[in-house]
Amino acid sequence: MSKQSQQPPDDMTQRAPSDHLGPDYKPTDQKPTATVSTKVAHENVTILPQTPQLIALLTMIRDKNTNRADFIFYSNRINRLLVEEALNHLPVHPHTVTTPVGRPYAGVAFEGKICGVSIMRAGEAMEQALRECCRSVRIGKILIQRDEETSKPRLFYDKLPEDVGERWVLLLDPMLATGESYIHPISRAGNEELANVVLEAAVETGRIG
C-alpha cells in the first residue's frame, strides 16, 4: 500500500480538532499536533483533560494494527481515567485523621455512598475500572434495547442496589452517541430511585478515523 493511500481523506482530517501536545518545558513549535476533544459550552459536561498520556492511549486503541490483548489493556487504562475523573465531581466533606506518627491530617471524605450502574452490555467493560478505584463497590445493571415497533429505546431489564436512591450513581457506558439510551435510567430520578447520577462515557463527535 502506498504512503498516499494510508493518509485519511481531507474532509476527515478537517473535521478532527487538533492541538499541540507535549511537556510544558518544550516550546509549542516543538510539540506534535494531535487529534483532541474540544471543550463544550455546558457547565454539567466535563471533557477529560487532553493530556499526552490520554492521547497516546487513544492512539493505541484507534490503531487498526493493535492486537486484541493490547486493545483491552489500553481501553481499561482509559476507563480508569474516566472513573477517576468522575469521582472528582462527587461532593466531599472535611475529614481529619491521625497519621502513624501522631500528627493530624486535614483531609476529605466522600459524602454518602457510591454505586455503579452499567448499561448492558458495553457498560460492563467499565466495571473493572470502577472496582479498582472503589473497593467493594456495589454495581447494578440496566438493559435498554430498541422497540421494533416504535424504534424508541425501551427498558428491558434492571437490577439495582436496594438503597440506590441513597447513593451517588456512576452510570457506566463507554459509548455515547445521541444519548437516547440514557433517558430511561436518568429520568427515573424524577419519580423513582436514581437521584444523583454522574454519567461516565466516551463521546464520539464526528468522524476522526
UniProtKB/TrEMBL annotation:
Record pathway: Pyrimidine metabolism; UMP biosynthesis via salvage pathway; UMP from uracil: step 1/1
Region: Disordered, residue numbers: 1-37
Phosphoribosyltransferase domain span: 49-188
Domain of life, per lineage: Eukaryota
A Pfam family annotated for this UniProt entry: UPRTase
CDD domains in alphabetical order: PRTases_typeI
GO molecular function per UniProt: GTP binding; uracil phosphoribosyltransferase activity
Cofactor: Mg(2+)
Keywords for this protein: Allosteric enzyme, Glycosyltransferase, GTP-binding, Nucleotide-binding, Transferase
Listed GO biological process terms: pyrimidine-containing compound salvage
Biased composition (Basic and acidic residues): 17-29
Principal EC category: transferase
The protein's Enzyme Commission number: 2.4.2.9
Family from the record: Belongs to the UPRTase family.
Protein name: uracil phosphoribosyltransferase
